[in-house]
Amino acid sequence: MDQKGYRRGSFQSSTSDEDMLEIAGASLDFSMADDDPPLDREMGGFTSYNGGGMNGASKMMDFLEEPLPGVGTYEDFNTIDWVREKSRDRDRHREITSRSKESTWALIHSVSDAFSGWLLMLFIGLLAGSLAGLIDISAHWMTDLKEGVCLAGFWFNHEHCCWKSNTTFTDRDKCPEWMSWSQLIIGHGEGAFAYILNYFMYVIWALLFSLLAVLLVKGFAPYACGSGIPEIKTILSGFIIRGYLGKWTLIIKTITLVLAVSSGLSLGKEGPLVHVACCCGNILCHLFTKYRKNEAKRREVLSAAAAAGVSVAFGAPIGGVLFSLEEVSYYFPLKTLWRSFFAALVAAFTLRSINPFGNSRLVLFYVEFHMPWHLLELVPFILLGIFGGLWGAFFIRSNIAWCRRRKTTKLGKYPVLEVFVVTAITAILAFPNEYTRMSTSELISELFNDCGILDSSKLCEYVNDFNSTKGDDLPDRAAGPGVYTAMWQLALALIMKVFITIFTFGMKVPSGLFIPSMAVGAIAGRLLGVAMEQLAFYHHDWIIFSGWCSQGADCITPGLYAMVGAAACLGGVTRMTVSLVVIMFELTGGLEYIVPLMAAAMTSKWVADAIGREGIYDAHIRLNGYPFLEAKEEFSHKTLAMDVMRPRRNDPPLTVITQDSMTVEDIETIINETTYSGYPVVVSRESQRLVGFVLRRDLIISIENARKKQDGIVSTSIIYFTDHSPPLPPSSPSMLKLRSILDLSPFTVTDQTPMEIVVDIFRKLGLRQCLVTHNGKLLGIITKKDVLKHIAQLANQDPDSILFN
C-alpha cells in the first residue's frame, strides 16, 4: 500500500478528459518519474457517490446535494472498480427505464440511450476504416517514393502511375511515366553509377522517414510508439493510462505509422491499427454521456474498436471479432460481441469503398487457391508449424532480452540514434536484394501468389512445356534459373528478417509484429513448397507421390505452403489460434485450407508453449510491469490470504479511520503522512469491527469542499460516517458527515481463505482490493499489486518488477 504522491489542491476530475487511458483490474504501487504523480494507487471501494455533507440545523449541514466533481473518478495510473462501475450503470439504466413511462420525451430519451451504442459503433467503424484507407494509400505512395517518382503526378505511386501506359504486360513496371531517381538526376538508369545513385537515394529517403517518425513521437506523443496491443490489453483489464488513447496519440500515430512503414523497417501497420482504432473509440465515447462517465462501459467500446482495427488491417471482420475476444479483451459480454461484429463490418465496408489498393480487396496480399491439398502434405505443414513455434520462442526471448537491455542501459536514452542506426543497417542490407527492397506486404503477396501463365516474377520462371498445359492450371514443372536465383535471395531475406526484426520491434516508432512474422513464415513456407514441388516433379514415382501425383499434374502449390508458414510463425509469436486461422482463411477466401492452417497453428503453439508460456504481448506486459492479471493462467499453490495480506508481522499496524471520533485534522494528518489510496473505516481502534472503506481521493475532495462552502468547519471538527451524529458538547464546532462517500459493502475474505479463491475473485470481479477479517475483526488488506507480487514470487521472478515503468 505504498503509493506515491499527495498534493493539496491538485485534484481535477478526469472524466471529461478524452486523453484518459485506463487499464483494468488492479490496485498497484507504481514507481513514477512524473512531476505530478498519481494520487490513489492501490485501493478503491465501490460506492454510490451522491455527495457528502454535514447535516443539522446549526452544527451540521448538507453541503453536497449534487455529486462533487472528481468524486468517484480515477487518477492516472490507477485501476477502475468494475463492480462499482457496473452497479452505477445498472442504477442509471433503471432510472431511465422508470422515467420512460412518465412522458413521451422520457421515452424518446430511453430509446436514444439504447440506440447510442450502435450509433457509436457506426462512427468508430467509419473513422477507423477511413484512417486505415488513408494510411494504406499514403504508405504505398511513400514506399515507392524511395525508388522514383511519377512524372504524370508526383502523388501517384508506381502502380497507379503506369495504369494508363501503353507498355506490354511483361513491361508493366517499366512505363515511361515512372522514372527512377538516377533517370531523373543523370538521365539514364543503367550502369554502376546509376545503381549507386538509386542505392543512395533509397537509404536517404528511408533515414528521412524514420527520423521524422521518431522525432514526432518523441516531441508530441511518446505513447504513439510500439504496437500498442500490450497497453490496450492492460487498459481493457481496467487500468488507466491518461493520454494513451487521446487525440494527440491518434494524430501522431497515424502520421508516424505511415512514415515508419514507408522507411522500409521490418515492421507492420496491423498492430498499430488496433491502437488507432481504440483511440477513435475512446475519443468518440465523449459524444455519449453513458460511455464518457462510465469506465466499464467505455471498455466495452474499446473491445469493439480493437475488432474494427483488425478488420481493416487484414480485411477480416470475423477474425477481428475473434481476435478481440481471444487476445485483447478482459470483459467481453454477448452484447459487446454483437457490437464488435457491427463495428468490424462497418470498418471493412468503409475500407472497401475507399479501395486503397485498386484491386477491390482490403489487403495487398489477398490470394485465391483452387487446387486441393493431399493428406500427405500435412507432414510438411506440421514441419512449418514446428518452425513457427521455434521461431516464435526464439524471437520472444531475443526481443525481450534486447528491450530489457534498452531499459536498463544508456541505450534507452538515445531513441533517435537507435532508430537512425537500425534504419541505416536495414536500408543498406535491403536494397541489393529485391525481396527485401520491396515492402513487406508486397513480399508476402508475391510469396502467396500461385504462378500463372502471365506471371513474370523470378519465382515463376519455370521451364515451360505448353503442350501439357490444360486451361489455366499449370502442371508441376522443372525450376528454371530464375527460381534458383529467387531461392537463394529468399534465403538471405529470411536470415535478415529473422534477426533485424528482433532489434526493430520495441523502438520508439509505431511498429507492428504481424507482417514481419508472416513474412518470415511465408519465406520459409515458399522455400519448402518449391522444394516439395521439385521433389514431386523429379521423383513422382516415389511411393509418397505415386498415389496422387502423376507426371504432368499440378500437385503442389508453393503459395499455399507460404500461407501456412505465415500462419505458423504468427501463431508462434502471438500464440493466437482460432482468430489466426479465421484471419488467414478470410485473407485467402479458401475454406478447404482450414485444416492445414489449424494443424500449423496448433503445432506452432504447442512447440512455442513448450519452450516458454508467454506470447510476445504478455511478455511485454510483464517487462513493462503493467498491472495485468492474466485470466488464462492457473493458480495452483496452497497459500492462504493471511500469507499475502498486509500488514505483515513486523510491519506497523494497518492505518484505519474510526467512524465517529476523528477530527478533520486527524484525517488530514493521515492523508499527509501516508500514500495509500484508501482507508478502512472501523467502529473504533479497540474493536476493529469493519464498517466500510473510503477512498483517499474522495476524502480530500470532500474535506476541501466542506472548508470552502460551509462555515464552521475547522481542524477540530469531528468527521463521522454514521447515520446519526455522535453526542458532543454544545460548544463543539460543526461536524462533517461523509457517509455518502463510504463504501458500505467492501469485499472481504477471512484470513484462512485459500489464495486460489482470492486470485479468482480478483480476476472475475476486477477488484482493486479486498479486506481480510478474522471473526469479524479487520486484520489487513490485499491489493491487486499484492496478488501480482505473490504470483511473481511463486514463479521465482522479482516481485518488485510489478511496477508501472
From TrEMBL:
Report the membrane topology from the UniProt record.
Answer: Multi-pass membrane protein
Protein keywords: Antiport, ATP-binding, CBS domain, Cell membrane, Chloride, Endosome, Golgi apparatus, Ion transport, Membrane, Nucleotide-binding, Repeat, Transmembrane, Transmembrane helix, Transport, Ubl conjugation
- Which reaction(s) are listed as its catalytic activity? 2 chloride(in) + H(+)(out) = 2 chloride(out) + H(+)(in)
One MF term in the entry's GO annotations: antiporter activity
Checking InterPro entries in the record gives: CBS_dom, CBS_dom_sf, Cl-channel_core, Cl_channel-5, ClC
| Pfam families recorded | CBS, Voltage_CLC
- Identify the Gene3D superfamilies for this entry: 3.10.580.20, 3.90.1280.20, Clc chloride channel
List membrane-spanning regions.
115-135, 199-224, 245-267, 273-289, 301-325, 375-394, 414-431, 486-507, 513-532
Q: Where in the cell is it found?
A: Cell membrane; Endosome membrane; Golgi apparatus membrane; Membrane
Residue ranges of the CBS domain? 645-709, 735-801
Q: Name one GO cellular component term.
A: plasma membrane
Q: Describe the protein's quaternary organization and the partners it interacts with.
A: Interacts with NEDD4 and NEDD4L.
Checking PANTHER family in the record gives: CHLORIDE CHANNEL PROTEIN, H(+)_CL(-) EXCHANGE TRANSPORTER 5
Q: Which family does it belong to?
A: Belongs to the chloride channel (TC 2.A.49) family. ClC-5/CLCN5 subfamily.
Name this polypeptide is given: Chloride channel protein
